[in-house]
Amino acid sequence: MSKLSKIAHISILLIIGLNSCKETTKQKPITGSAIQYYCVQKLTDVIVYDIFSPPVASRIYAYSNLAYYETLKFAFPNEESITSKLKGFSNIPPPQTTQTYNFELAASVAFMKVAKTLVFSKDSITNSTKVLLEQFSNIDQSEFDRSVNFGESVADIILKRAATDNYKITRGMPRYSVFKEIGKWQQTPPDYSDAVEPYWYKIQPLLMDSAAQFKLIPPPAYSLEKSSLYYKELKEVYDVSKSKTKEQDSIAYYWDDNPFVSEHKGHLTYANKKTTPVGHWMGITTILSGASNKNEMETAKTFALTSSAIFDAFIACWDEKYKSKMVRPITVIREHLESEWNAFLQTPPFPEYTSEHSVISAAAATVLTKAYGDNFAFNDTTELQYLGMKRSFKSIEAASDEAGISRLYGGIHYRSAIDKGKEQGNQVGLLYNQLIK
Questions:
Q1: For 77-86, what is each residue's pLDDT tens digit?
Q2: Which of 124, 150, 168 is the last residue of a domain?
Q3: Which single residue of 165, 169, 298, 333 has CA 20 to 30 Å from 20?
Q4: Among 165, 159, 156, 154, which residue's Cα sits nearest to residue 81?
C-alpha cells in the first residue's frame, strides 16, 4: 500500500472511529485535524442530502470553516484572525486568560452550530455534534461547558455576518424571466428547469471589492458564420462529442458533480444525488492535508481560505453568467446541427459563460498550491463513495485543469468559458493568497 493510500485508509478509519464511539467506551478520543475532517464530511453528507445548489453550498462551507478557524486559533497565540481581514465581520472577543479551554472542542461546536443554522437537515448535524461532544467527555465539566459556550459565541459572530450578506433578500426576489433571444441562454433539456440563483451576484463577497472586481472580456459574439470564433468553438463541442475517447468520458463523468441530475425512464423521473464541486474540493483539501505534515492549525487555515475563495469565486462567476447570459451548446446544436443531439453530461440550469468548474477549481487550486506547493502529487479518492472512481494527479493545478476541460468533454461548455474561467478563478485565488504569510 502506497503512502497516500495508507493516509486515505487511516482517514477513513478515523471517521469510522468517531461514528462508533458510542459502542466503544474505551475508544481513544480523536484529536487534531481528524476532528475537522469529520466536521467537513458530515456537512458534505447533509449538503448532498439536502440538494443545495453549488453557490449555496459554497456559502455554507465558507462560514462553517471560518468559524472553526477563528475558534481554534486561540490555541495558537501567533495566529491572526482571518475574518478581521474580510468584510462584514465583527471582532471576536478573546477567551478569558484566567480560564482553561479545550479549543478543539470549542472549534467543533462553532463549526457545527454554523452548519446547523444554514442547512435544512438540522437533526443530522445535531446527531453528528453529539458524537463529537462524546470525544471530549473526559475533560473537566467546567472546562467542557466553558469551551462549548465559547465556541457558540464565535459561531454567533459568524452567523451575524451570514444574516446580513443579502442571502435572505435573494430568497424573496421574483422568478427569473427567460426570453427567446438569439445567442442568449434558454432553459435546457431534459427538465427545462428554472435558472439557478440568478441573483447570486447580490451576495456580499468576503474579500472581493464587488462581484465585478475580476470582470472578464465578454464571451465570443454569437455568430453562425463558419469563420467566427463562436462557431468554431460550437463546432469543437459538437466534434468532441462525436470522437471522445473512453478516458475523456471518464474525466467528464468524474468531475460532473452536478446535484441537479435527474434520470428519466419512461414516465419515471428520479434524482441522482452527487456531491457539489465545492464538496469535491473540500474532499481534496482533506486529502492534501492528510498527506502533508501540516498541523491542525495550518489545516484549519487552509480549509478557511480555500472555502472562502470558492465562495467569492462563485459570486464573480455568477455575476458574469447572468450579465452575458451566454447560450448553452445543446440549444444551438439542436437548432442548427443535429436536432436529437444530447450532451454527454446533463446541462446545469444556468447560463454558460464562464465555466463554474473552471472558476472555482482554479480559485481553490491557487490557494491550495500556495499552501502545499507546485508539484504536490495526490490520489483523489473523493468520488469513491459517490461514483466508485478515483483519479491521480501530478499537481493540484493539474486536477483543476482537468476539472475545467471535463466540461468540454461533457458537452456543456465552450473553450472560452473554460479558459477565461480559469483566469477569473486564478485572480480570486491570488487575492486570497495575499492573506497567507
A1: 999 999 999 9
A2: 168
A3: 298
A4: 154
- Give residue-wise pLDDT tens across range 151-168: 999 999 999 999 999 999
The answer for 363, left when phi > 0, alpha when psi is -120 to 50, beta otherwise, is alpha
Structural domain including 42 reads 3-168
Q: Say whether 393 sits in a helix, a strand or coil.
A: strand
The three cell numbers locating residue 289: 492535508
Q: Looking at this protein, which amino acid is placed at residue 54?
A: P
Strands 268-271 and 378-380: unpaired
Residues 33 and 157 placed together within one structural domain of the fold:
yes
What is the average per-residue pLDDT within 128-152?
96
**CA–CA dist 40, 43 (Å, integer):** 5
For the chain, what's the residue count?
437
Q: Which amino acid is at 149?
A: N
Number of domains in the chain: 2
d(CA 260, CA 406) in angstroms, rounded, equals: 17
Domain boundary among 168, 199, 223: 168
Please count the other Cβ atoms lying within 10 Å of the Cβ belonging to residue 422: 26
Residues 418 and 312 in one domain: yes
Distant-in-sequence, close-in-space partners of 246: CB < 8 Å, separation ≥ 6: none
CATH of the domain at 238: 1.10.606.20
Q: What grid cell was written down for 431?
A: 487575492
